[in-house]
Write a structure and sequence with these properties.
The chain is of the alpha+beta class and about 150 residues long. It is about 50% helix and about 15% strand. The longest helix has 17 residues.
Length: about 150
């Protein structure tokens, strides 16, 4: 355990307990949705340390985010036991994620083609127009979708 001051040590312990209860997708959802919220660098470090230790315990390769010390973290996708940024996955995956986002937003999603992406944006064409969308928004929507309980009909 790291040598955090008592207040931050409690935050670290609290998050270690939480992370033990989450699925792998739950950990990724926490990273994508919650981790950027702490305004305090010390609080962020306590939470991030707990998260990285849990990822390591589960043998999930998080090398893509390991060296990032910024409070603004790039969104990631879990494929197998490895985290990837949108830049690292094939365009087809970025396209599929974009279509799922547009479908969930009840927006037309047929006929789109992703032409490029970076950690901040995904650019796609539809009906001859270039449209850009936030990569974080697309990935967060996908992540939230993974966590929704499935209803049996």
């Amino acid at each position: 355990m790291n040598n955090f001051k008592p207040y931050y040590k409690n935050i670290y312990i609290e998050h270690m307990r939480l992370f033990k209860k989450l699925s792998n997708n739950g950990l990724v959802a926490f990273y994508n949705i919650e981790l950027e919220k702490p305004k305090s660098k010390k609080r962020y470090n306590a939470i991030r340390t707990a998260l990285e230790e849990e990822l390591e315990d589960r043998q999930i390769d998080f090398s893509v985010i390991k060296e990032i010390e910024d409070l603004e973290t790039p969104p990631v996708i879990l494929v197998g036991n490895k985290l990837y940024t949108i830049n690292e996955v094939p365009l087809e995956i970025a396209e599929g994620l974009t279509m799922m986002y547009l479908k969930a937003a009840k927006t037309e999603f047929k006929g789109i083609q992703v032409i490029w992406r970076n950690e901040q944006e995904i650019c796609y064409t539809q009906h001859g127009k270039e449209i850009m969308i936030s990569a974080r928004t697309v990935i967060q929507s996908f992540t939230k979708g993974l966590l929704k309980p499935k209803t049996i009909k």
